[in-house]
Protein: Octaprenyl diphosphate synthase
Amino acid sequence: MENPLNLIKNEISKIEETLQSLRVSQHPFINKVSEYVLFAGGKRVRPLLCVLSAKALNPDLKNSLYETSLLFEYLHVATLLHDDVVDSAEFRRGRKAARNLWGNQATILVGDYLYAKALKIASSLQNPSIMEEITQTTLLMSEGEVLQLLHLDDTEISEEAYYEVIYRKTAVLISCSCKVGALLSGVEDKKAEELANFGYNLGMAFQVIDDLLDYVSAETGKDLGKDFSEGKVTLPIIFALNLAPAQEKKELLRLLKSKDIEAKDFKRAYEIIEKNRGFELTFQKARSFIDTAKDYLQFLPPSPYKEALLYISDYLLTRKK
Amino acid sequence: MENPLNLIKNEISKIEETLQSLRVSQHPFINKVSEYVLFAGGKRVRPLLCVLSAKALNPDLKNSLYETSLLFEYLHVATLLHDDVVDSAEFRRGRKAARNLWGNQATILVGDYLYAKALKIASSLQNPSIMEEITQTTLLMSEGEVLQLLHLDDTEISEEAYYEVIYRKTAVLISCSCKVGALLSGVEDKKAEELANFGYNLGMAFQVIDDLLDYVSAETGKDLGKDFSEGKVTLPIIFALNLAPAQEKKELLRLLKSKDIEAKDFKRAYEIIEKNRGFELTFQKARSFIDTAKDYLQFLPPSPYKEALLYISDYLLTRKK
Structure:
């Protein structure tokens, strides 16, 4: 059986080639702005999951699977462009944010364009179930963006509210990518739903780990955690606040809310979170999402594509950045 | 036969009632921002044309026609919200722009939400032809928005380039509203295409007249033309520049490009445009679009709905604001 990592690399190459060969628009400016963000080191997680889900159910699938899978990358990038404007971001993936090069106006409008492009690709499939899935997803995502804006500084956020935020921010699109892949393979809705559940749990784990890494990869002391310095409440904080004695809870909240934190403040916050099992419990939660995700794949017949999906699931728990 | 104006008022009331009775979201904040713009005196042109087009082909149509027609209002309002951010608009329809009350961030995101909502309504129809029509329309619109941003100060704009701009800005959505109405009535694609062509020409006339009124309703001397003071090149300018002698052409361009124009400058520009038949030829062009629009309705059987569509067409040429 093919090594899952090789298979994954191979599928990513095909996605990458398709992305390179297709222009999003006939207009050079739209392409320039889009390609700046599309080729900024994205890992193609969503198209990849779409392709693997489809092939795990129907390995011989012969249609425009790769072209279709790109719609999830376009959707994702559209949200990144709008997020950067909303957050007044200076950087994205270590480079200047698009809005820093072409301004907020063009960034908003190219985001709108990529969103429209994604929906156009979806509608060309002429498959009402797929279309409903995708429009429901974008509705949940855009509603989530507004809710996140409103709860910007809410340190009272509960574990449940956090899951709701990351569901809309990350998991719903990943779940949709898997489900649409399944629907493209031609299986009945019930089987597609299993893939949707896999994607949901995988997506939740993905974001939980992302939020954990924001602390752990900053541990060296060179960096401050980005989320923490922005006062963002994520799962490590929520768990630590639940367990911390009153004094430490107060201190952690004070550090979280202070404007210009220094390395020593972040170090202290890190200590408090670690002592109160914030990181440990967060990692456990991620593992539990991954376990559930993998359970939903059990019904799949053995195949290298199934192995690849399992490999990705395990990989999430070991990644360091 | 029912008086067309009464029929139109009656249909608008039904659209208005439906709009009032449906919430766009479960979240009060999203509703507040959306409703601020949705209930700001919009004339419901797009839902109205959708409803009338459907009923002109099938007067007994019994489905969720009014609910469906709202998707065109949501799409329209979504573009207004993003336009206001892109243009840094202070006002919209005589009131503070939404971005002035809730900020650019919320305005961008609620715009995204309304767009997603519109597409969700469309997908719930489970009609691939309708979905393709709508996604193609939003793609053309969003591409047009980018192109307009790039040509912001282009005084060399040709008549053809102007038509392309107003097609994407206005006519394509109006055409889509009519065509989708036709498709909802259940007719074959060829008949729906006639309604699409009607809508295209009506939409073109609508925007041409809008651009004309920006001058003519400012004639009293109290106001400066908004487009002119922003240096925007519309059809009256294009026609006048074509016919004006070199000296007047130069003067008109100088006035158009100057930063802080006064009432007397606008008056002088108005004179030059009028003398060189800019307004007259613009109005003729609008009439020609309307004549073509009405031709496309000839195949319709006689009905009060057909009469209402003809009435709206004629009304466009006589409206004063």
Observations:
- The first strand of chain A starts at residue 91 and ends at 92.
- The longest helix of chain A spans residues 189-216.
- Chain A has one domain: 4-318.
- The mean pLDDT of chain A is 93.
